[in-house]
Amino acid sequence: MKKSLKLGLGAALAVALSAASGFAENVKIAFIDPLSGPFASTGTNGLHQYEFAADYMVNQNGGVLDGRNFEIVAFDNKISPKESLIQLQVAIDQGIRYIAQGNSSGVANALTDAIDKHNRRNPDSRVLFLNYAAVDPALTNDKCNFWHFRFDANADIKMDALTDVIVANEDIKKVYIIGQDYSFGKAVAAAATKFLGEKRPDIEIVGNELHPIGKVKDFTPYSRKINASGADAVITGNWGADMLGLGKSVIENGFEGPIYTYYAAGSGITAAFGDTGKGRIRLISQGGINPIASEEARAAYNAFKEKYPEGNIDQSRIFNVIGMLAQAIEGAGTADDVVEVAKQLEGMEYESMWGGKVFMRPQDHQLIQDMNVGVHTDENIEFDYDTSGYGILTESTIEMASMDSATTCKMRRP
């Protein structure tokens, strides 16, 4: 009992001294993503973008509220849902109230379930899940919850926009769909089948298969099947090492049609494709890089390159996460009451430097934004990826994509 009393007095004294000295505790954001293993380059580049965005957009401008800075705390989840849950608990135990994750919808599904359970059982230590890249539609549909906010477009929204471009190409009569064997890969395949069937029922799907995530060393057998199928185009949601391995193998084995992708840029992928991907690789994404969307974005990108000469801003939505969180905290008047912060995020309209207004749809916490379809090229590229001379040039834009799309979310609010 005496020991507990002494610790309580010590803590109170520390708080009093901090207040007297004008100290403002940092707002910590746990970054839980792969920093080792086959997807380490993707996770590391995302971490650099988070660290830069926090400093550039918030900290160097005086922080939030009473001068509180954003601090990004990195946790390596090794792309494992089990490891992610361990790191989540470590972050919570450290008093961190904001969790950022994006690589792997399998991880995101585990995190959102765990966070929902934790928040119901522990109202004094609730956390928010800032999902910046995991796009399984279920996360903002049947598995939605109040604590989860998605800042990327989900797989259905992306495929709806991407298939608008595909069906406009009358030379495409046959399509091969291939992806990673987990929730996201399955969602991409289902969406491609659905939208192609609705928009161009004459297009034949000549292949639809999944492969183990992060385990295929040689994609030659898959590439040979694609070529043998007579496909005019390939659709894949692959990312990281699996995107690079599949794409290079398909091209090297003689496929000459367009390859429509979700994540075929940056993190070494653009440099590896180089000239072989020119005019072949197409990408659905948000945020205008080439051409740059605004002078503000140009200044931010140039500042980022000064700090990370070999790095890329290939996930500009990370800047939206930081900017919108800062705006929500200011609006709530607190960074510690995550319920009030969440209420500010719901329905927020935010002017993104990367392409105009974005809108956090309140009914399912899905961010609505412009979607761009671009091509891998070295022509008219102001900001290349991987210092390769190649980048993604926007060819078409779908404004506020899927603003009125249906959701099955039935959200329970605290």
TrEMBL record:
It comes from the Bacteria. Pfam families: Peripla_BP_6 (PF13458). InterPro entries: BCAA_transport, Leu-bd, Peripla_BP_I. Keywords: Amino-acid transport, Signal, Transport. Residues 27-373 form the Leucine-binding protein domain. The keyword Signal applies. One of its GO terms (biological process) is amino acid transport. SUPFAM superfamilies: Periplasmic binding protein-like I (SSF53822). Residues 1-24 form the signal peptide. PANTHER family: ABC TRANSPORTER SUBSTRATE-BINDING PROTEIN, LEUCINE-SPECIFIC-BINDING PROTEIN. Belongs to the leucine-binding protein family. This is Branched-chain amino acid ABC transporter substrate-binding protein. It comes from Aliishimia ponticola.
